[in-house]
Amino acid sequence: MAQQVPVGAPVGGQTAQPRSTGSALDWASRNARLLAPLLTFVFLFIFFSLVTDVFLTPQNLQNIVTQIAPIAVAAVGITFVLLCAEIDLSIASIATFTGVLGAFFFVGDAVALGTWGIPVALLIALALGLLNGFLVAYVGIPSFMMTLAMLTIARGLSVYVSEGKPIFDVPPVLKALGSVSSQVLGIPVIGLFALAVLLLGEFVLGYTKFGRYVYMTGANREAAEMSGVDTRRVIMVSLAISAVTAGMTGLLFIGRLSSANPAAGEDVLIFTIAAVVLGGTSLFGGEGGIRNTILGLLIFGILNNGLNLLPNIPITFKQALQGIVLLAALLLNVFALRIERVRARTE
Amino acid sequence: MASLAPEPTAVSSTADAPILRLGGVTKRFGGATALDNVDFDLRPGEIHGLIGENGAGKSTLMKILSGVHAPDEGEIALRGEAVRFASPAEAKARGVGMIYQELSCMPQLSIAENVFLGRQPTSGGVVSWKAMRAAAAEQLGSLGLKVDPRAPLGSLSLGSQQMVEIARVVFSGAGIVVLDEPTSALSGPESERLFAAMARLKAQGASLVFISHFLEDVLAVADRITVLKNSRKVATLANAGLTKAKLIELMIGRDADALAESYAATGIDLPPPAAGKTVLSLRGLEAPGSFSDISFDLHAGEILGLFGNLGAGMTEIARALFGQVVPAAGEIALDGKPIRPRTTRESKRLGIAYLSENRRKTIFPRHEVYKNISLAHLDTLLGPVLRPGPEVAIAREQVGRTGVRPANPLLNAGNLSGGNQQKVVLAKWLTKRPKVLILNEPTRGMDVGAKREVLDLVKALKAEGVAILLLSTEPETVLAESDRILVLSRGRITREFAGETVSKDRLMEFA
Ligand SMILES: Nc1ncnc2c1ncn2[C@@H]1O[C@H](COP(=O)(O)OP(=O)(O)OP(=O)(O)O)[C@@H](O)[C@H]1O
Ligand SMILES: [Mg+2]
Fold it and tell me: Which residues does the UniProt record annotate as the domain ABC transporter (chain B) (predicted)?
């Protein structure tokens, strides 16, 4: 090959390899997307440990895990969707609807399926997700609009199925899964379940072809298409995954609360997206992943819990404060990513 | 409406005093040196050619001038005054405009808006759309582009988009205009019109830098030529008396005469038609508005060249074969069986590989080279669980084969020079031997040496029995290795050349 022939002149830009020494800064900026949320997490953890007595007790840590576990499951699906450079606004409604269905089938006034209602409810969530995906990827409705419509549809269906009333009986397996007292080695079972879903998500995204297709579709859809990736199918499947994980979240919620309320769960949407984006996954696709999501969930969980424990803060101010700290964390992320971008500025 | 195209800032200085001087510029990216103590000067009213191999540092040098990169060492003097541009906007404000190698237009915006990006004509603070459209139409018209300025830019072909980008900078009134490979997406007549526009700017006193791998073009338009090699400056020479072979010798330092040989003037003899097995056959293929009545056969172990100007419909035919456009009429048969691919995935699985002409649509700049390369073959080359080890190993082999520099599959693709990005895209399709390989401008943006290597690679694939369709608007590329050549014009095949002597002029006659 031409350029491999030495041509006399000392090596320059063409042949010089990137130096591996003296590049701690280089390494840091390369990994800014993980380091920024990691630092935020460590900072918040130390902060709350120091200023409150309660934060670092096993009991409280178990609380945090139980609180974020249901969100974590939906966050896995949202991570797929954001990596594809799409959005899913229907997760909260689908979660609620799936929960209502699980209880509805269990109670069995109209359709009695007992515990089998759980997989059936999840299949219905899957169907809604596929509908989202089909209309977005193959028909071309922007995901923002499509999932907004689905948000309304699923919410309406919850009310319709339950006749607008909470259902106070839920499958015992869900109760067992959701209760704080079910623990293995001091870790709440619901937390282990969420961890399993997160790890499965990490495996699919990081170590399978489909996961790679998700990243590359989000990074440059046309280029993925030009490499023979069926990007429409990738987007459809991602939206379907998101609906199924949202459905699981809904079922975990009814287990934890021992009832299914068609009017509950609206804040799942904001919490989930906030947690994922806090972790550093890009809203524009192609960058981030489950590791980021895990960090985002931890930050979000600690923040939520820790602010409650702070003395001298009026409870009425808590929500505003939570928003302010979220904003600060987001700014830190944006700042870190800007450093990374300057480094990687391309042609 | 000429008032919207301000005259270039007049330069009144003694004849040869440089309007701009870069002194001792050094630039490092991480540990790699992209520029090493480079001097460069630009005189008023000159066209200055800048040449060098892929990765030599041409784009980087000019990006330092236009405020994209800050130099690590060295200085910039504009009209004798030391300056430092923190951003392209600052450089623009001082009259330095640059057309980047990678398109930087906004495909969603209208053509007129793109021409006037960042400097819309206003009356009383309100954008005067009418004036803007009229001016855009006129400016593009003078570059030979007749389009509706209200149409979105993305609806134009790549070459026309490039013309719009050129218009934006050329008519901005900048006294210093840098053109980084402006013609690589243009066909002959468009390039000619661009050169005419450059000459007009020069006559008005502007100074231009022209980066190109088309050395004939550089020799034709430049007053002086600077050669970069391995991040250093080799020489700045007056054009008078220079030859292509001399330039290649300075750039690459070997095979200069062989590489300088041009098929364009003399013509070549196509081999007598040898009927291999028919792999792909098209009959009466038609897509309204793009092409009609396209019929040809492609044989195993054959390179079929398709030549035409922009808008001849070649890209659309390729897209139809690759499952991106479903033709309205006609048949495609692969190995004798009719096919009708509807997705790129389907085509890929049938054994059809397509290298697109548009780099923005082929490269993942923020992902590693190895991921860029493996994407097309994840389902066949690697097991169900992806592990970086084998993936990187495969990429490393391909990177070596195509001569990507630096040969490190772990770098982000966006950090490679333009020509090297193109090699990465090529490497992707060479990873697994396809039945049919469609190459659309495969050597775009490559230096003379790299072009030859790529054509040699294509020849090797042909020897292995791959059926190759080679599309180009550059006569040289088509002439170099084709066994047969089809010329297209306005969506129709106008002439087939087989077993005869053909030259650049003959090709152009039918385009
Ligand atoms: N943003 C960047 N980060 C890291 N390395 C870079 C970056 N931009 C350029 N380089 C490196 O600097 C060197 C010079 O690149 P440059 O783009 O200037 O080459 P060029 O002469 O324009 O080549 P081509 O003809 O292929 O466009 C190359 O080795 C390239 O890999
Ligand atoms: Mg370049």
Answer: 20-255, 274-511
* Interface probe with A: pick from B315, B344, B399, B444, most Cβ of A within 10 Å: B344
Two tokens at B12? 């009144």
Which domains does chain A carry?
A: 54-338 (1.10.3470)
Across the strands, what pairs with B25? B38
**B315 C-beta closer than 6 A to ligand 1:** no
Task: State the Cα angle at A32 between B391 and A325, rounded to 5°.
Answer: 135
Residues B285 and B185 in one domain: no
Q: Which CATH number do you get for residue B323?
A: 3.40.50.300
Closest-approach residue (CA) in chain A for B251: A7
pLDDT average, residue stretch B458-466: 91
Please give the model's pTM, rounded to 2 decimal places. 0.85
Backbone angles phi, psi at A2, to 5 degrees: -50, -50
B255 pLDDT higher than 80? no
> Residues near B163 by Cβ (< 8 Å), separated by ≥ 6?
B140, B143, B144, B145, B186, B190, B194
**Distance (Å) from CA B196 to ligand 2 centroid:** 23
Q: Give the model confidence (pLDDT) of A123-172 as tens digits.
A: 999 999 999 999 999 999 999 999 999 999 999 999 999 998 999 999 99
Query: Does this complex have an ipTM over 0.85?
Result: no
Residue B466 lies in a domain: yes
pLDDT of residue A21: 38
Q: Which of B433, B449, B479 is the last residue of a domain?
A: B433
Please state whether beta strands B436-440 and B467-472 pair in parallel, antiparallel, or not at all (unpaired).
parallel
3-state secondary structure of B465: coil
Range(s) of the domain holding residue B225: 45-67+95-252
Q: Can you say whether the dihedral through the CA atoms of A198, A204, A207, A211 is positive or negative?
A: negative
Tell me which DSSP letter residue B109 carries.
Answer: S
Chain A contact for B408, CB < 8 A? yes
| Nearest-angstrom CA–CA distance, B277 and B298 | 9
Q: What phi, psi does B446 have (nearest 5°)? A: -95, 150
Which conformational region is residue A104 in: left (phi greater than 0), alpha (psi within -120 to 50 degrees), or beta?
Answer: alpha
State if residue B418 touches ligand 1 by the CB under 6 angstroms criterion: yes
Q: Is residue A171 classed exposed, middle or buried when 0-12, 13-18 and 19+ CB atoms within 10 A define those classes?
A: buried
Measure Cα distances from B452 to B186, B269, B358, B463, B500 in Å: 20, 19, 21, 17, 23
C-alpha distance across the termini of chain A, in Å: 25
**A304-322 pLDDT, tens digit each:** 888 888 877 787 887 788 7
Q: Closest to A287 (Cβ–Cβ): which among B56, B354, B366? A: B366
**Helix, strand, or coil (residue B265):** helix
Residue A167 is classified by DSSP as B
Asked whether the beta carbons of residue B31 and residue A23 sit closer than 8 angstroms, the reply is: yes
Q: Give CA–CA dist A210/A217, Å, rounded.
A: 10
Q: Which residues of chain A have pLDDT under 70?
A: 1-26, 28-30, 333, 336-347
Domain count, chain B: 3
Whether the bond into B406 is cis, omega within 30 of 0: yes
From B102's Cα to the closest Cα of chain A, the distance in A is 7
For tokens 């515990």, what's the residue? A115
Using an 8 Å CB-CB cutoff, list chain A residues near B253. 7-8
| Percentage helix, strand, coil for chain B under 3-state DSSP, each rounded to 5 | 35, 25, 35
Q: How distant, in Å, are the alpha carbons of A114, A189, B98, B329 from that of A173? A: 11, 12, 66, 59
User: What pLDDT, on the 0 to 100 scale, is given for residue B437?
Assistant: 96
How many whole angstroms separate alpha carbon B8 and alpha carbon B174?
6
Ligand 1, residue B411: give the atom nearest the CA. Answer: 4
Q: Is B26 on the interface with A (CB under 8 A)?
A: no
Ligand 1 center from residue B406 Cα (angstroms): 10
